[in-house]
Amino acid sequence: MEDKKFKRTLVTAALPYANGPVHIGHLAGVYVPADIYVRYLRLKGEDVKFIGGSDEHGVPITIKAKKEGVTPQDICDRYHNIIKKSFEGLGISFDIYSRTTSKIHERTASEFFKTLYDKGEFIEKTSKQLYDEQAHQFLADRYVTGTCPHCGYEHAYGDQCESCGTSLNATDLINPRSAITGNVPVLKETTHWYMPLDKWEPALRKWILEDHKEWKPNVYGQCKSWLDEHLQPRAVTRDLDWGIPVPIEGVTGKVLYVWFDAPIGYISNTKELLPNDWQKYWKSKDSRIIHFIGKDNIVFHCIIFPAMLMAEGSYQLPENVPANEFLNLEGEKISTSRNWAIWLNEYLEEFPGKQDVLRYVLTANAPETKDNDFTWKDFQQRNNSELVAIYGNFVNRALVLTKKYFDSVVPAAHELTDYDRHTIEEFKNVKETLGDNIEHFHFREALKDAMNLARIGNKYLADTEPWKLAKTDMARVETIMNIALQVCANLAIAFEPFLPFSSQKLRHMLGMPETDWNVLGSVDILQPGHQVAQQPQLLFEKIDDDVIDAQLKKLERIKQQNIIANFTPRAIAGPCTPDDFMKLDIRVGTVLECSKVKKADKLLAFKIDDGLGGRTIVSGIAKYYQPQDLVGKQVCFIANFPPRTFKGIQSQGMILSAEDAGGRLVVIGPTGPVKPGVQVK
Length: 681
What we know:
Blueprint: E1 8-13, H1 24-43, E2 47-54, H2 59-68, H3 72-90, E3 96-99, H4 103-118, E4 123-132, E5 137-138, E6 144-147, E7 156-157, E8 174-178, E9 186-195, H5 201-210, H6 217-228, E10 234-235, E11 237-239, E12 254-256, H7 258-273, H8 278-283, E13 287-292, H9 298-312, E14 327-329, E15 332-333, H10 344-350, H11 355-364, E16 372-374, H12 376-406, H13 418-439, H14 443-464, H15 466-469, H16 474-494, H17 500-510, H18 545-565, H19 578-582, E17 586-596, E18 604-609, E19 615-619, H20 627-630, E20 634-638, E21 644-646, E22 649-651, E23 654-655, E24 657-659, E25 665-667
Parallel strand pairs: 1-2, 1-13, 2-3, 14-16
Antiparallel strand pairs: 4-5, 4-9, 6-7, 6-8, 9-10, 11-12, 14-15, 17-18, 17-20, 18-19, 20-23, 21-22, 24-25
Helix pairs in contact: 2-3, 4-7, 5-6, 6-9, 7-9, 11-12, 12-14, 12-16, 13-14, 13-16, 14-16, 16-17
């Protein structure tokens, strides 16, 4: 890749389904790294275009529409606007963010299909596919659920298992069921057109395995695995009423398969952006195409879409596909269906002005080589200990000291010491490693390089102690503060691809002229006599525990809602005779006193009026009740259990409770007042 020279770069980011907002998994896997890369190229003055858009023909959209009783277009319009606005809010700097329901996309995708059809690049096949007899329709992959044949996950979709990530065909599933009616589907014949991927396997093997060994190991390895298992023809059309109609005369009720339609969206969106110049980005040999995707899209962007481009014949193939792995949330896999996610639109509302904090944390934890985990505690720690305490602290110290000693005017540098020269050399060297890491898609390491600049600045101020020298040697203080301010200016440039909002804020405080990447490492960005902000502001603010606790409680509520939603009663226990039940003496008692048992978090001690002189019962329900809330209530208890001792307290029975769908224990009692001691029959 280093030897190749390109005049321009086209960067695409995977098209998100417009059936819901985007979440942090999407951001960490695709959009933040793509934006870092594009902003870096722009800073270098390169010709780059950043293409995005919503995928609006996926079956998940029709499922959502059916569930809400609206049209698929209603769903697309709603979520396309939410997603577009959210991306803008986080500073994802697309040159265009369009959609696959646009007229230009329908025309482009139809023409692409027709070109391949006319060239004889498709195979027409009649096969048996799953059909719902009650719904009177063939079932698209997402309308089929069942057990994954690879990992045994019982809720896999017909196109992919969300648990193990394996791509599937609906007929692969064990015990398949229709997601529309819940019925067991039948196999019924239907005719479709197929892309003969096996025809392009030799060309793909050479292009990937020989010509692109520099690709990330996770991408290269997955492609090799697919190719080694040998490619098979894959359908490019579906029996569906939502999508781009198959452009063949006389064909009705069939649309282009979304995996065929969606990547063409990159082309149609480029056409929309550059109606006269789009071809040079897609068809010129001196153009570089980079696809940013998540690992679940590797096969589509590295094998299927390139095979389509090879078959068409006039397009350039992607130069790189730097796919990331998955980001988990608090140790669990992010799941849109279970609402286990941090949604970008909600984050922007709940954390106003903290776009860069999320960008920073997602980059620092980016799942570049393996799955990684987002936790709210780590989010807080990185903000407070890194952005605030290192980066923000250095900038604030430099500006405050400049205001104190020089009325916020950049002083001149005088004779440099060896330590000055060493510090300058250190931050000059950051430019090369930082740029090299971004060029090779190592964004986590690049972010560390940028933060290292702030560490260098902090150490320089701590070691030189200008506040002490101000009493005896102001000329030396002038040199120190000049260097410190040059580091600040360098930080504004180095962090621009990662943290655009704070970089803009810092540029404003420094009154920086427009600069580009080539200036990074310079010691004369701010000239002596230049005015900087007289009222410097903090770049970042500490995030308190209560803010994080609120987010953790929100996730806990979601977890409980999922438990309740997925509750299924336990199987009935083995047979029990009336004689067995009659052995239990179940009575009603009134709670006179209730208190927590010392050194036992789960236990409560009850004083019960049982109508027979009273008794003490110890129960493990402390997690679910406050003691004072139970005083005066009537409860059912088993009176004839032999006494047992808990933490030195003798318990004379067992209070009855039911476990609800969320795992909470609920004390059982009569619906109305009764005399203590009455038996339950």
